[in-house]
Specification:
The protein is α/β, with parallel strands linked by helices. The chain has a domain of about 110 residues. It has six helices and nine strands. A hairpin with a 2-residue loop joins strand 4 and strand 5. The longest helix has 12 residues.
């Protein structure tokens, strides 16, 4: 399997894949609000089309790309600090939520060595704040890994439906959605 690290766009590798980016462009209206948990190189390309809010644990990526609203949130209990997210005033009208972080790695430190993944904390955060997630596409990057697949599958047990799952042979992403029928 070939890595997409050498993509001419800079997508792939640690960033979302070109295939993932293309899916987003085809399914999310330009100008829509997008929330990303974990920013990076993909943020630069998403900013050209969307109103971005980027949650980031790593000071290196904070304010990395002009135009995104960055919220610094250190890791606490396998997820971003709830207090930092509260202070960041997350909204309830995101069309797309990208879950591509947090990672166990940082430019400044390694996150909890014993942690299998730091994305499992999104489950409790969802249960406490479902209004942020309903009616939005939730895109899980890296579902070719067991840990991320398990988190994605947990959302399916909560009434979310799988919209798409795509792989370029190296990276895989999965999109789920739960429509709020009571508005």
């Amino acid at each position: 399997m070939a890595s997409t690290d050498d993509s001419p766009t800079g997508l792939g590798g640690w960033a979302i894949s070109q295939q993932c980016f293309d899916w987003i462009l085809e399914n999310v209206a330009s100008g829509s609000k997008v929330l990303e948990f974990g920013s990076g190189m993909g943020t630069e390309f998403l900013l050209e089309h969307f109103e971005m809010t980027s949650i980031e644990q790593d000071p290196f990526w904070m304010n990395g790309f002009s135009g995104s609203r960055y919220i610094f949130a250190p890791i606490e209990n396998d997820w971003y600090s709830w207090e930092a997210l509260k202070q960041g005033n997350l909204e309830n009208d995101y069309v797309l939520i990208i879950v591509d972080g947090p990672t166990r790695f940082s430019t400044t430190e390694r996150i909890n060595e014993a942690s299998e993944t730091t994305r499992t904390g999104i489950e409790e955060y969802y249960l406490a704040h479902p209004e942020i997630f309903h009616d939005a596409y939730i895109l899980f990057d890296d579902t070719n890994t067991e840990e991320i697949t398990e988190v994605c599958e947990w959302f399916l047990t909560q009434g979310f439906e799988k919209v798409v799952e795509m792989s370029d042979g190296w990276k895989q992403f999965t999109v789920v959605r739960k429509e709020n029928l009571i508005k």
